[in-house]
Amino acid sequence: MSKKGLFIVVSAPSGAGKSSICQRLLMACPEIKFSVSYTSREPRPGEINGKDYHFISRDEFQERIDQNEFVEWIENYGNLYGTSIKAMDDILENGKDLLLDIEPRGAKKIKQKYKKSIFVFVLPPSRIELLKRLEKRGHETDEAIKSRFAQAESELKEVSWYDYIIFNEDLETAANELMAIYVAEKCKRNRLKDKIKEYIKK
Fold first, then answer.
1. Helix 142-155 to helix 127-136 angle, to the nearest 10 degrees?
2. What does pTM read for this prediction?
């Protein structure tokens, strides 16, 4: 069996820019596979089923919960979100590297099962800037923005148990930092033990 792939989990408060940073990494490193989550919410303009999320009905989502198909799932703002165990394991067991973009509550559940994974937390430049970014989205009510900001304040407290922190003051810099984390983890000695042994034999 091939060596398991590297698993990176990226989290951030809503509006911190983690999705944009992850997209930059995927573009620069096409060998990394992206874990597409399931959700019961309706697609937003421009979102593609199977790429941004697997959009399913609430009833189907509940069936998948009952069948223990998710490594983690949560209800957020009235919508359900979950990560498929099988989809993740199929990628990792085949030696492929995996990237998951997920909020802190789900990340904490994943850490319980995938203890050797790498956890990265993305922070906005400041709380004020985070609020400005949420307000610029334009497709949500003032009440929804306040709710997201309150949850973001709570999620910031989760930063203490993550392996790496990225301050997203500049998208290009933040994306480069995530790429640096990925490259550094790939070069760790304990991940290269088999390759080192083969090198020494030659």
1. 150
2. 0.86
Percent of the chain with pLDDT over 90: 66
Rounded distance between C-alpha atoms, residue 134 and residue 190, angstroms: 41
Give the C-alpha separation, 43 to 196, whole Å: 47
Q: What is the β-pairing status of strands 70-76 and 79-84?
A: antiparallel
pLDDT of 31: 94
Report the chain's C-alpha Rg in angstroms. Answer: 18
CA distance to 41, 65, 165, per residue, from 49 (Å):
11, 20, 30
Phi, psi of 49 (to 5 degrees): -65, 130
Nearest to 186 by CA among 96, 115, 101: 96
CA–CA separation, 22 vs 16, rounded Å? 12
What is the CATH topology of the domain spanning 7-35+96-201? Rossmann fold (3.40.50)
Residue 148 to residue 174: CA distance in whole angstroms: 22
